[in-house]
Amino acid sequence: MHVASAYLQRLERKGFSCDETDPAHVLERLRSLIGDTENLSGTSLEEFESAITAIKNEYTISWAQLELNKNLTHEERGLLWSQFADASLDAALQVAWRHVAGKHKALNSLIDQPLKGLFVLGLGKLGGKDLNFSSDVDLIAYFDPETFPVPSSLGIAFIAHQVLQTLTKSLSRSGGLDFVWRVDWRLRPNASANTLAMSVPA
Q: Which domains does the chain have, with CATH numbers?
């Protein structure tokens, strides 16, 4: 496969490659990787960071096969990239919740329960299902104080912020080369606020 960027060249040097020439088989592999991503929601933070990086690398090299060969339409390729972003963000949110809940005794009993009351929405290209190879993911988050299972004594907004900070760090790796996504919260209303999540009543 002809490689169009230094990032893809680095992946090939690491042994990641996609020699499949049938677009249908490449699509099948991409969908399988999305399924693998969804299954990471019950892992530890360390396990998640290792696994999601490997999946992202394999997804990238396979997606690039479609991009460089102009298989599918631009819109279809953008949708595939956005679907992987959605899956990785959903899994990262669950993993971040488990990690933060494990640090607070009052939340320990909730670690293995599905997260309720805290949700993340995509803006920009992610919101339009039009991500491309170099896109950031622009996010906004809300919590419902009635359903987010955090005692007020801990600080509901504080815990929500901790979860979102953990999500961000797990995917962005502080700007390192092996980032999964460059996560950007600056498009949210009142972006200068100290907390990343807003209360639904607000």
A: 6-199 (3.30.460.10)
